[in-house]
Amino acid sequence: MKVVIAIDSFKGCCTTSEAADAVERGLRYYRDDIQTVKVPIADGGEGTVDTLVKALKGKYIEVDVLDPLGRKIKTKYGILPGNIAVIEMAEASGLTLISREEYNPLTTTTYGTGQLIKDALDRKCSTIYVGLGGSATNDAGVGMAQALGVSFMDGNNQEIGFGGGELNKINSIDTTNLDNRLKDTEIILLSDVTNPLCGPNGASVVYGPQKGANTATIKLLDRNLRFFGEMVKRQFSIDVFKMPGSGAAGGLAAGFFIFCNAESYSGVERIIDLIDLERHLPNADIVITGEGRIDSQTVNGKVPVGVARKAKKYGIPVIAIVGSIGEGAESVYSHGVDGIVDIVSEPISLEKALDEGISLIEKTTERTMRIWDIGARKEFIKNFY
Q: Is 136 helix (H, G, I), strand (E, B) or coil?
């Protein structure tokens, strides 16, 4: 029996590699002669750099940058064969870098992400992939652009400060010192977000609350993003409001579109192609995928559905092992996922579920395979006779 394991990380519990290892151990508890193929995978969010560096035998680069609150930290990105950089904005500008008490999209900045881009340019990378998941910011990528040489001047001809709360102070935008190397560099955004920059479905309204914004702050941030967009439209004749996905990462995507001529792609689809998942699928008996939580949003570019679509080309059954099942999860059935199994089988606290997550994945995998095997044997007997 051949089983392909292509599972995403369980946020706050385990990485992609740790989850895959747990599934493999669960398979061994069931049968020790199973052929397993573990394929590191991500969707542009947490784990993207590790996934691509491991799968494509790249290397890590350590860099000193500013975190979302402007403090100096050491972080990393990857360089793949062919001098291709892969960056997670969350490594420099993500929520995991600050405490919950520090969440404040009025002041958090994407400056550190711009520093990562600059370091990749210094290393002569001609293609740069940027994963946009996990942002702590709502500054429309202004901080990123500042790190790359753009000046955003207020009415007193002074550079504005960091954060989404500063955007309404912009009086002029000067791109004279924008890093000239960007003209010859392909910037590819990896994202599953299609939200516009502002409005009811925009960056501030939809994602602001998880970054610490209350109702009043959300309204202010949304107004500031609109102000910024109108400023860009007047000065550069670029209508960022019409660009799908410009609201990703608190509008960081908009900043990349405007100043770096970036293009955006489905993160999971691009990563699946880069790692060539498809070559592992012929002759597979089952594919095991999954993520921390499966719900109605999973069909919008998340790992389980991306994996399932490839597996269905070969008629391979797909099981998703997940941390929790949310509203609308059944929508994945029409996208190639055959079954969903929750690792929590009894009432349990979130803290305990996270602490014991790896063990729960192992046990759930074993139980799932034993049930699946009953069906497989019945089908064999039916066909045999």
A: coil
pLDDT tens digits, one per residue of 288-346: 999 999 998 888 888 999 999 999 999 999 999 999 999 999 999 999 999 999 998 77
Instruction: Please tell me the predicted confidence (pLDDT) of residue 352.
Output: 83
Whether the CB-CB separation of 291 and 321 falls below 8 Å is answered with: no
CB atoms within 10 A of CB 74: 8
**Residue 7 token pair:** 């599972």
Domains and CATH numbers, the chain: 2-38+281-384 (3.40.50.10350), 48-267 (3.90.1510.10)
Identify the pLDDT of residue 380.
41
Could you tell me where the DSSP H helices lie in 64-136?
A: 90-93, 111-122
Quick one: how many helices (H) and strands (E) in the chain?
12, 13
Q: For residues 247 and 163, is the Cβ–Cβ distance under 8 A?
A: no
pLDDT over 60 (residue 26): yes
- Long-range residue pairs from 27-30, CB within 8 A, at least 24 positions apart, any chain: 27/3, 27/365, 27/366, 27/369, 29/362, 29/365, 29/366, 30/365, 30/366, 30/369, 30/370, 30/373
Check: pTM over 0.85? Answer yes or no. Answer: yes
